[in-house]
Amino acid sequence: MRSRSPKPASTRTSSFPLAVALTAAVSALWYTGQRVRVPKNVRPVQDFDAQQYMGHWYELARIDYMYERGLTSCTADYALQDDGSVQVTNRGFDPQRGKWKSATAVAKLLSDPEVGSLKVSFFRPFYAGYHVVYVDHAAGHAVVVGDGAKYAWILSRTPSIDEASYTRLVAIAASNGVDVSRLIRVPHGAALEVVDAAKAA
User: What are the phi and psi torsion angles at 43 (to 5°)?
Assistant: First the structure.
């Protein structure tokens, strides 16, 4: 009696565990990306008004990170969408290349519309925290803290403010767990200087 040679496993059967593993990994990444929480010691404003917050802001200071590294004259524009989400457009000037860079994201409120906590995504489905811990619409100032208080931004409706106001905003960031020694000031008007230098050359 001849023995039968074993049948090779079908491609469908052998690849099934790999497909399950990949699906689980992608699902885990997606789930993690959705779970943005308010960091410990960070206190978002409790009277947040999204409509008032919309519009043009200048970035006066930030804790640097890879997407903004080296950029000057940085601004952020917020536009409320019909579905309640916010379109975010960040713009900055790269003085080494003499070019403007921009990126567009979508932001969504985490829960209560009166609490200044949002999640922002430049690369969906991955989100990062954006927590408004201070906003003064009359003065046109805001302080924003990112995930784990590792990132922070000091914003203004104008490209410069007096030093007393700036110091107060830095203190607010510090009271929300931010290592303010890592803050860097963001110069504005650098692009105009480059243009003037090019004209003079």
Answer: -120, 95
